[in-house]
Amino acid sequence: MDKSLLNSPRILLVEDYAANILVTTTYLEEFGYEYDVANDGNEAVEKIRSGMYYAAVLMDVQMYDMDGLEATRLIREYEKHTSKPRTLIIGMTAHALSGDRERCLNAGMDDYIAKPFSPDTLKSKLELSKIDINEAA
After folding, report:
1. How many of the other CB atoms lie within 10 Å of CB of 52?
2. What pTM was computed for the model?
3. Hey, how many other C-beta atoms are within 10 angstroms of the C-beta on 76?
C-alpha cells in the first residue's frame, strides 16, 4: 500500500453505473483520496452502519433497489439514533432539473452535483467541504 495514502480521507462512492464509477474513482485517485464503492443505497447504508468513517459520501440519487434519497434518510436516522457525527453527503444526478437540488437537501444531503461533472467541479465540492487532501495530511 502507498504510505502516502495512509492519512488520506476516505470517500464512499454510491453509484450503480460502471462507467460513472470508473470516471469518479479516477478523479478521486488523481486528487489523492481513498475510496470505497457501494453499488446501491442498501450497500451504502450497510457500510455506514459498519462503523467505517467516511469524510464524504458521493451519493447517486437514482439507483435501483434503494435510491440515494432513501439511503440518505436512513443514514441521517442512524446518525441521530447513535449520536454519530453527521457524514457529509453530496448528491449526484444526471437530471439537473429544477427542484433536484431542493429534493437532495430535503432528504438530508449537504450538497448536490449534476452529472456529468468536470474534475474541477468535483474537487471544489470536496475542498469546500473542508476535506482537502492537503489539510488531512
Report:
1. 11
2. 0.89
3. 16
